[in-house]
Specification:
Elements lengths: L5 E6 L7 H11 L3 E6 L9 H8 L17 H8 L2 E7 L1 H9 L5 H8 L4 E5 L3 H5 L1 H12 L3 E2 L3 E4 L5 E5 L3 H12 L9 E6 L4 E2 L5 E2 L6 H12 L3 E6 L11 E4 L3 H11 L5 E4 L6 E3 L18 E3 L3 H4 L5 E8 L3 H11 L4 E6 L11 E2 L1 E5 L4 E3 L3 E2 H16 L4
Parallel strand pairs: 1-2, 1-3, 3-4, 4-5, 8-11, 8-13, 11-12, 13-16, 16-17
Antiparallel strand pairs: 6-7, 9-10, 14-15, 17-19, 18-21, 19-20
């Protein structure tokens, strides 16, 4: 897949820069021509000589050097490349790219290229989770950049968290996918739900849950990347809207039910990743309930089971967040709701519960096949789910 392709490998000033040598080696062995651009900070962690020895190509470290093959360097290199890969990408470089700053060779090349750009972040967990970094990443995603999410593990600081450079195998796979994008879901319409519904008690209070919406949003983004026409029906979340996706915002279970019923009229698949409240207050107070008594009793009634009640000829995928008897409970829901696939996870596991960027799930389909996936990012889990859906949808008649 990489034979005769030109890959620009951007290396920035992270302790993970030493892994870039292995990335370059793997790309060269796969038949790619690898042009390396190193920021000044990157040269403090690994020498240009190392990368030159691996790629057999000159390494660019200075955009004003007069011994570079490409001239004017950033324009010619930007036009020659099939894909750009920045690995590792620091928070500083991500911020500069988001702002369109081109004060070095790497930034100038990114700004000048029309080729796809892949970013593999690597940094301290606090830096990665900082709202500024998350906003910058969201901005780059919205512009079409592909992210290889960092992994969870021990970091150079000694802390444990999300921030490690993704596995090299995953990075190489992403390069291949971007270069050979199949658009296997092109022509299909997929409806995805996400987030946790909010059932009002009075004008200022509601019954809710801890769903962040990250899993549903990851599915919507991934399906869009694979060519599908995606409608995302979202309960309130603190996430940016995915680029290229039609977003319908709702709050309550009743609103989500109505939106789903309308959206699936022309859908090929429905993926119910939302955490829909099981109960809602029987009566909603018109004014704010005052704190006048030591206790308050709320009468609750069942909400509609959207996935069980929705009708139509499309692939139906459900989620089961369980705390015990994970597979057995998921199987019951699969049969009861007549699903094609159910995705279940243990919400007591801190790495696959609410609000985190990783998930460890089990996939169970209507044919009885059970697949236990390892701990993955939610974007990777989304890919596995869509692979199963593609098997049922394709080839399109």
């Amino acid at each position: 897949m990489l034979a005769k392709k030109t890959v620009v490998l951007g290396i920035t000033g992270s302790i993970a820069a030493y892994k870039a040598a292995e990335i370059a080696s793997r790309l060269v062995k796969a038949g790619a021509t690898v042009e390396v651009i190193m920021t000044e900070a990157a040269t403090k962690f690994v020498t240009p000589l190392t990368l030159r020895s691996i790629t057999h190509r000159p390494v660019v470290t200075d955009m004003f050097a007069d011994n570079i093959e490409y001239s004017p360097e950033h324009i010619a290199l930007a036009e020659a490349v099939d894909v750009m890969l920045i690995a590792p990408a620091t928070a500083n470089v991500i911020a500069k790219l988001a702002a369109g700053i081109a004060d070095d060779m790497l930034g100038s090349t990114v700004l000048a290229t029309k080729a796809p750009v892949i970013i593999a972040p690597a940094m301290n967990v606090n830096m990665f989770q900082n709202p500024v970094t998350q906003q910058n990443l969201a901005e780059l995603k919205a512009r079409g950049f592909t992210m290889v999410d960092p992994a969870y593990g021990r970091l150079a600081s000694g802390k444990v968290g999300v921030g490690r450079l993704a596995e090299i195998e995953q990075i190489i796979d992403t390069v291949e996918q971007v270069l050979n994008k199949s658009n296997d879901l092109a022509g299909w319409r997929i409806v995805v739900t996400a987030g946790g519904t909010q059932e009002p008690i009075d004008p200022v209070r509601h019954i809710g849950n801890r769903s962040s919406g990250k899993m549903g949003y990851a599915i919507a983004e991934s399906a869009c990347d694979r060519g599908a026409k995606v409608i995302l029906i979202s309960a309130p979340v603190a996430l940016p809207e995915p680029a290229g996706v039609d977003v319908i915002k709702v709050k309550t279970a009743a609103e989500m039910k109505a939106a789903v019923a309308k959206a699936v009229a022309k859908a090929d698949a429905l993926i119910m990743a939302a955490a829909v409240a099981d109960y809602q207050p029987k009566e909603v107070a018109k004014a704010k309930i005052k704190k006048t008594s030591p206790s308050l009793t709320l009468a609750l009634v069942r909400t509609a089971d959207i996935l069980a009640e929705v009708k139509g000829n499309f692939v139906k995928v459900g989620f089961a967040a369980e705390s015990e008897d994970i597979v057995a409970n998921a199987r019951q829901k699969l049969v009861k709701k007549q699903l094609d696939l159910i995705v279940t996870n243990d919400i007591t596991d801190p790495k696959s519960g609410f609000g985190v960027d990783t998930n460890k799930v089990t996939l169970i389909d209507r044919d009885g096949k059970v697949e236990n996936l390892p701990l993955l990012t939610k974007r990777e889990v989304a890919g596995k789910i869509l692979d199963r859906i593609a098997e049922r949808l394709c080839p399109k008649p």
